[in-house]
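hiii, so i know i said id send this last week but things got crazy w the move. better late than never?? heres the sequnce for the chain we talked about at the cafe, plus the structure i predicted for it. fair warning i was half asleep when i ran it
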Amino acid sequence: QVQLVESGGGSVQAGGSLRLSCTASTARFSNFAMGWFRQAPGKEREFVAAISWSGLSQNYSDSVKDRFTVSRDRNKNLMYLQMTDLKPEDTAVYYCAASRDSVISTRESRFVSWGQGTQVTVSS
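okay and structure toks below
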């Protein structure tokens, strides 16, 4: 079974930083784009960031593009989300996901493998 596991969530004050990690159980995911999504209480899951198979291209939602950075280490089957200047509205469960494509996409339907999520809570 292929698994994606997120870690690094926690509680921080507004303006703080966190780095989320996503570990893939197989090197197969190194050949595909990956991304981060989040779901806040009472809201639908939304796109946060995505990264191409090579790691050279990234895409961000407007709400995080100047504050978050997505990166990956294909050799170690790892993906990261560095979050800075966190705001209370960033509070959500964050999920990592792997796409079926090598190019990046913001469409949730293109991501076929998902982790269990990690909680990020930002207090004002």
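btw The chain has a mean pLDDT of 93. thought thatd interest u
miss u guys!!
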